[in-house]
Amino acid sequence: MRIRTAGVIAAAGLLMLGVAACGGSGEPAATPSKDKGNGKLVLWTDPTRAPVLKPFAEAFGKENGVTVEVKEISENQQQTFITASQQGSGPDIMVGAHDWIGNMVQNGAIDPVQLTAEQKAAFHPNAIKAVTFNGQIYGAPYAMENVALIRNTDLVPTAPATIEDLIKTGKDLKAAKKVQEILCVPFGAAGDVYHTYPLFSAAGGSLFGTTASGDPDPSKVTVNTPESIAALEKMKALGEKGEGAIKTSIGNENGIPSFVQKKCAFLISGPWSMNDVKKAGFGYDISAVPGFAAGGQAKPFLGVQAFYVASKGKSKVLAQEFVANYVTNKDVAMALYKADPRPAALTAAADAVKSLDPNAEKFVQAGANGIPMPAIPAMGAIWGPMANAEVAVVKGGDAKTAAEAATKAITAEINK
Amino acid sequence: MTTEVTGAGSARSPHPGPSGQAPDQRSRGGRRGGAEQVRRTRELSTGFIVSRIAVLGVVAALLIYALPPLIQTEAWTALGVVGVVTALVAYLYLTPRHIPAKYLVPGTIFLFAFAIVPIVLTFVTAFTNFGDGHRGTKEEAVRAIETSSVTQVPGSPEYYLTIAERDGELVFLLVDPDTKAVQAGTADGLSPLTGAEVSLTGKVLSAAGYTVIPTAQAAERDAEIAAFSVPTPGGAVKATGLSRAFEGKADKSYDAACDCVTSPSGGRWVADEVEGYFVDAEGKHLDQGWKVDVGFANFTKALTDPTISGHFLNVLIWNFVFALSAVATTFALGMIVALALHSPRVRGTKFYRIILILPYAMPGFAMLLIWRDMFNTDFGLISKLFGVHDWLGTPTTARLGLIVINLWMGFPYMFLVITGALQAVPRELTDAARIDGASAWAGFRRVTLPLVLVALTPLLISSFGFNFNNFNNIKLVTNGGPYAIDNSTVGATDLLISYTYRVAGFDSGVADFGFAAAISVFIFAIVATVSTVAFWRSRAQEEVYS
Amino acid sequence: MIKWLRDVGWRYAVVLVVCAFALFPVVFVVSAAINPLGTLGSTGLVPEGASLSNFHDLLTGDHPFAKWFLNSVIIALISAFAGLLISVAAAYAFSRMRFRGRRVGLLSILLIQMFPQFLAIVAIFIVFTEVTELYPTFGFNEPWGLLVLYLGGALGVNTYLMKGYLDTVPKEIDESATMDGASHVQTFFRIILPLVGPVLAVTAMLSFIGTINEFLIANVFLRDTEAKTLAVGMYGMLTDKRDANFGMFAAATLLTAIPTVSLFLWLQRYIVSGLTAGAVKG
């Protein structure tokens, strides 16, 4: 019982100083210092990227004669950024996933970034698509990621052409006691829509319809269309009461470890698994998640990491200079890649480093059919109910019932 | 130390009666007569003077620290309040009166600032639609709508920008990347500029009559540059950073006459002050909204929305079961081990105590995740020991599992406080009970337990309150699951708090703070009622024992 | 022998069973921490291999683990000490004095801690944005800001714990001190405080643990890598690299328990001394 913690969580105000706050906010004109640029650029990111970005940010600072501070937010970056921005203590630049864009825009927390035609053309088209929201580009993408099929080549020399092949190979290996599991796809007791999306989409399932402009349309939830229900049926067939390829007992915490420990020959995961896989000491290869024999391609979600200009930052022009003109530079993108090897969003940089890391290129190839994760605010309403529906079918529940329950919960949340 | 009144009574009845006084001992001491008085007065005076000087010193230091920034920013209200608070504190510690307040004020100040202020804030928020999409003012929403509608004028060049100055006024020196033609842009518009020296990268190095501002200095004038625009026939030239500019125009603009947002392409969104959105004829709203007062809407929604009230009773029952069993199990186990170690005949108590507090010493969130792994169906330790079962996937075992996990995390706390409390139970009493022929169990029930309970009831109540809202355990272990296949809204292990968290959209990243605040008021009403009843009953009990 | 079993033997049996219960998740963490693959071996209590590589990576990696460790200990110690002082003073007033609003005050302290905190983060930003502008020393990213914020929880259930214990100290003791001419301040510091050592130790312990593991607020407050506490730093490591860092995380979890356990080792004699003190009191 961490009663003290509860008390501490309760704590959020300050009398002597807090009183000052009331006065200050009551008289906005009294704090002109806030609106003045201060020749300082503050950038927020997560703990993994902070050390990588620091040298680049500092180089930018030197080049322009300003100080640049890189701060790291450990957890809940998006909400922390939005809340901080609203109250006037946010950064000038935020770094984060592109699917935050919808929520950041509806809160007026970020500004569009004006890229030239030339700059836009230099990016992978999917990266530009990902950061485009309501026809505007809201950030400068720098890295892309998606899941792929990683296999142990000591056990499986050639990539399976279909999901059926994959299951058969997995079952044969299991029967031969070479592995314990057919497939390691992180799913967990709570479900995992992201990792299983290639399978769901290959089976014909989808989450949203699209608007005329090709953006996902929150008013058309397609979770209980006949196609999506059929896809859930296929997931049920792959689930615990069927083939046993998707299991609630394999989740994020043990998916990669199980593969590394040779408990399964196949893993569906992204570039972040490479550190462990390389250490495992067996041959491996990366290929796209295959489709079903009956047709239908697997479409993994594409995630893009991007730099955003905060609307309420104190140095907006400087922030734009950094986002629009500095990180879009090929040499900077290459250096970023070398520090943090994720598939670069800038095509020129990606091509230039192709020879250095074949894995990155293979992930990009595997994501060629991918669809950028919808950045609309309504996307948040999907994850929970959809995961519940998937858990239900994987455990052998009726696909139609699960799809209907999920749709009900999703629409209730969207129309909230 | 000698005590005038001794005996069993003093140990048993530490509690002064309700008529107990809070005498001002100093002034009373000062009234005593004889030589003793002289000595005491001198001694007290020294202490008096030193302590008063210290008080004044601290107050002065605080004022010296706190005032200048307030004066600088002209925050007069704040200044006034700081002044009043400081004066009150100074008065309180300078006067010999109000002794209880002297001991209570430091804690109260912090409590007020960091516990009461957020509660008040929550209360106020419950009457608004504050949340994602509705965080700021209408002006902020309008600004965001206009800014995000700015697009480049089709066919316009993507200029290289050099920031310069002429007669103290900001000037944009713009270089067309194709023609290398240079233009000077001021608040009046664009004009061609000849004779400028342009670098290969399109930077203007010098131009007659203009002073080029170095980047570092330009960065200092960030806000000024951000606000600067050069009007053009098609829109306006704005800076994109310090080295480029583009000619853009806003697609949407606010029209105060109709209180609406219009777009030249025909869109028209009228402000809806009830929803806090700009809404078009079809009822579709723009993304950016603003905060409006909604009266009791959040409260009535919580009571009438079937997705909430429909599940309320089931969730509430489990919530009570969880909170009560959490308190009961941790208290029981803590008591058992505390009693077991409460004997001089047990060797190695130090060692055991350290092992027993380990669960409390490890970071909670990490251990919750580890417990979740131990309950894993196929790979978890629990399945290895007790057989493969979908432990967290079936309602009954998931609930039991949570109680066990909570027991593990919570019993060391009870063990610690009970160990402390047991030391206040005079051993003579338990021994006396034993001599009377009572069994050890009866002695425990009749003597030890009631005495410990008197001291610890408030802690138990507090523990109940904490577990009633034990968000972390649920969130990290089951996330409210398992969910029934036909119900994706509420899971078998959801507490009111975790349920609210989801219903108010915190899980999905689009949070409705106003609604969450309204439900927290309800949750608080429930916990507070239960706790208050328990508190008054325990107080009544205390009077009996004292 | 039977008497021994009845009087002492059961005690060992109970303690050993409960110790086993307390330990087995910890053993699990140890297993993950020394597993060189750096994964949370969901396999069992026995790791696949044994090495200290996780600890080595932890201490030499990108993360300034030692600095976090130090920050945590300093913040937790200061806040435990300051919180203790504030709450024992309040407990003294509640236990020894009778004044208007006493009961309401006691009840309020209890209830205030029970309010659900959905808006804690928003409140922090509202208040500390201004504070940071006006008084940077107590603003964001500063341990001092975090400390004063933590003190908001000082007047909580710990006050009750100490009040309950103070109630057991015979009133006659301080009355006689007053007769001897001691002021209330002297009585409080020279007579009462030394007598309630065990509960001070227990409270300090609880308060220390609460602060060192506090995450929610520290996460919002501390943004520089160098300024972070263990809980915040570790959570960042865990969530961001998904599972890849679990071995290091387990190692860090174990190391985090070290300050708490050391403090307990040191305080234990005070807690234990209460046993004899209690007997004397009777």
UniProtKB/TrEMBL annotation, chain A:
<protein>
    <submittedName>
        <fullName>Sugar ABC transporter substrate-binding protein</fullName>
    </submittedName>
</protein>
<dbReference type="GO" id="GO:0042956">
    <property type="term" value="P:maltodextrin transmembrane transport"/>
</dbReference>
<keyword id="KW-0813">Transport</keyword>
<dbReference type="InterPro" id="IPR006060">
    <property type="entry name" value="Maltose/Cyclodextrin-bd"/>
</dbReference>
<keyword id="KW-0732">Signal</keyword>
<dbReference type="GO" id="GO:0015144">
    <property type="term" value="F:carbohydrate transmembrane transporter activity"/>
</dbReference>
<dbReference type="Pfam" id="PF13416">
    <property type="entry name" value="SBP_bac_8"/>
</dbReference>
<dbReference type="GO" id="GO:1901982">
    <property type="term" value="F:maltose binding"/>
</dbReference>
<dbReference type="GO" id="GO:0055052">
    <property type="term" value="C:ATP-binding cassette (ABC) transporter complex, substrate-binding subunit-containing"/>
</dbReference>
<keyword id="KW-0762">Sugar transport</keyword>
<dbReference type="GO" id="GO:0015768">
    <property type="term" value="P:maltose transport"/>
</dbReference>
<feature type="signal peptide">
    <location>
        <begin position="1"/>
        <end position="21"/>
    </location>
</feature>
<comment type="similarity">
    <text>Belongs to the bacterial solute-binding protein 1 family.</text>
</comment>
<dbReference type="InterPro" id="IPR006059">
    <property type="entry name" value="SBP"/>
</dbReference>
Automatic annotation (TrEMBL), chain B:
<feature type="region of interest" description="Disordered">
    <location>
        <begin position="1"/>
        <end position="39"/>
    </location>
</feature>
<feature type="domain" description="ABC transmembrane type-1">
    <location>
        <begin position="316"/>
        <end position="534"/>
    </location>
</feature>
<keyword id="KW-0812">Transmembrane</keyword>
<dbReference type="InterPro" id="IPR035277">
    <property type="entry name" value="MalF_N"/>
</dbReference>
<feature type="transmembrane region" description="Helical">
    <location>
        <begin position="49"/>
        <end position="67"/>
    </location>
</feature>
<dbReference type="Pfam" id="PF16296">
    <property type="entry name" value="TM_PBP2_N"/>
</dbReference>
<feature type="transmembrane region" description="Helical">
    <location>
        <begin position="351"/>
        <end position="371"/>
    </location>
</feature>
<keyword id="KW-1133">Transmembrane helix</keyword>
<feature type="transmembrane region" description="Helical">
    <location>
        <begin position="513"/>
        <end position="536"/>
    </location>
</feature>
<comment type="function">
    <text>Part of the ABC transporter complex MalEFGK involved in maltose/maltodextrin import. Probably responsible for the translocation of the substrate across the membrane.</text>
</comment>
<dbReference type="GO" id="GO:0015423">
    <property type="term" value="F:ABC-type maltose transporter activity"/>
</dbReference>
<dbReference type="InterPro" id="IPR000515">
    <property type="entry name" value="MetI-like"/>
</dbReference>
<dbReference type="InterPro" id="IPR035906">
    <property type="entry name" value="MetI-like_sf"/>
</dbReference>
<feature type="transmembrane region" description="Helical">
    <location>
        <begin position="73"/>
        <end position="94"/>
    </location>
</feature>
<keyword id="KW-1003">Cell membrane</keyword>
UniProtKB/TrEMBL annotation, chain C:
<feature type="transmembrane region" description="Helical">
    <location>
        <begin position="148"/>
        <end position="166"/>
    </location>
</feature>
<feature type="transmembrane region" description="Helical">
    <location>
        <begin position="12"/>
        <end position="34"/>
    </location>
</feature>
<feature type="domain" description="ABC transmembrane type-1">
    <location>
        <begin position="69"/>
        <end position="267"/>
    </location>
</feature>
<feature type="transmembrane region" description="Helical">
    <location>
        <begin position="106"/>
        <end position="128"/>
    </location>
</feature>
<dbReference type="GO" id="GO:0015423">
    <property type="term" value="F:ABC-type maltose transporter activity"/>
</dbReference>
<comment type="similarity">
    <text>Belongs to the binding-protein-dependent transport system permease family. MalFG subfamily.</text>
</comment>
<keyword id="KW-0472">Membrane</keyword>
<protein>
    <submittedName>
        <fullName>Sugar ABC transporter permease</fullName>
    </submittedName>
</protein>
<keyword id="KW-1133">Transmembrane helix</keyword>
<feature type="transmembrane region" description="Helical">
    <location>
        <begin position="187"/>
        <end position="212"/>
    </location>
</feature>
<keyword id="KW-0812">Transmembrane</keyword>
<keyword id="KW-1003">Cell membrane</keyword>
<dbReference type="GO" id="GO:0005886">
    <property type="term" value="C:plasma membrane"/>
</dbReference>
<dbReference type="InterPro" id="IPR035906">
    <property type="entry name" value="MetI-like_sf"/>
</dbReference>
<dbReference type="InterPro" id="IPR000515">
    <property type="entry name" value="MetI-like"/>
</dbReference>
